[in-house]
Amino acid sequence: MMANEGQGRDVDLVIVGGGMVGVALACALSPSGLRILILEQQSRSAKAFISDLPAQQALGHDSRVSALTCASQQFLKHVGAWSLMQQQRVSAYTDMEVWDGTGTGEIRFSAAELHEPCLGHIVENRVTLAALYQKMLEQAAIEFLPGAELASVSPPDAEGARVLMLKSGELIRAPLLVGADGALSKVRQLTGVAATEWDYGHHALVTSVYSERPHRATCRQRFTEDGPLALLPLSDPHWSSLVWSTSPEHAGQLMALSDDDFCVALERAFDARLGHFSQPEKRFVFPLRQRHAHRYVAPGLALIGDAAHTIHPLAGQGVNLGFLDAAALAEVLLSAHAAGESLASERVLRRYQRMRRSDNLLMSAGMEGFRRLFADQPPLIRLVRSLGMNLADKCGPVKQHLVHRAMGLSRDVPSLARRRQRQDKSAMGN
User: Which residues, in sequence order, are CB contacts of 201 under 8 Å at separation 6+?
Assistant: First the structure.
């Protein structure tokens, strides 16, 4: 028991971070009967977040959306959130167009070519989080504590357990601490886990816009001389979510434009493929950095999602990697708990690290390679780049391999995120 009974409590698992990835992990673990405590720094309760959703939806779109893969959908279906998300705004996309804005290269992907109903779904983050909160509230084993800020984390004791102190003074002891608290993870900092990071030299401008031409359920991405520009189809056929990665100077200029001038700049940058733009919603901008923790685990500690790794948003894989982390860690912990193994054991936790770290590093390296390839290059490099894109577009097996990996349909995904049977494809659409 704890040294200070009056101020503390014991639980089986503490998850720091009440975002999508942390809550999904808790929901996946809930059938085990483990006592799970989620610490969330934001003060709004889960019930308030859910009740506020209809009013927020009526005001406009969430500026933060995710391009959820089939693997993420499967995991969300496993924890019971997907059907709730479908009752809100969930937009299946069937096609993808990517082109070189400074060359002639272009590549297209189609669900029809793969005999799939869609390539994935564009979902506003608040829709996903509200559905996960709803499932979380149904689980008696999960406690959600808003307004909880971490002050310190003890080293592991002889059994690997740690004691957490909150800024309120409350002490919590648990065999396992999971950091799911984002890119600036307090858990990672307080436990001394080093990370390699660097600035991409890009800022991402995000908003939603109305287009003259319908998006036809197609994700479109243009590589410009300043960075990738993506329009992701929302549930309304004329509304898209915009993610414009560009230099900090250019981002500042775009933020300073009037709505009308911003739409003109966007139309020009997008080669007018969707005609005129109008009705831009509030614009937000944030810097882009890549981070990767040197290790994901230690005795009584595991990092998942952005706390372990962040990548450039050009392929929309960030939250998908986080959900795969959660699925893998849940798989490992459920198996260990059933076998009577300690959740604090580094030997147990390394199974999760082996499942995820190499894949995340590979994705991170791939995104960095793409970013550098499509940066401002000499004419010869641009020519080779365009030829390569056009060649890949004509090579069916190459395209199929690329899109299957992007959709999370490879066999090496965690079992909780793996599609079981081919007939499940009928449920992949809206």
Answer: 247, 248
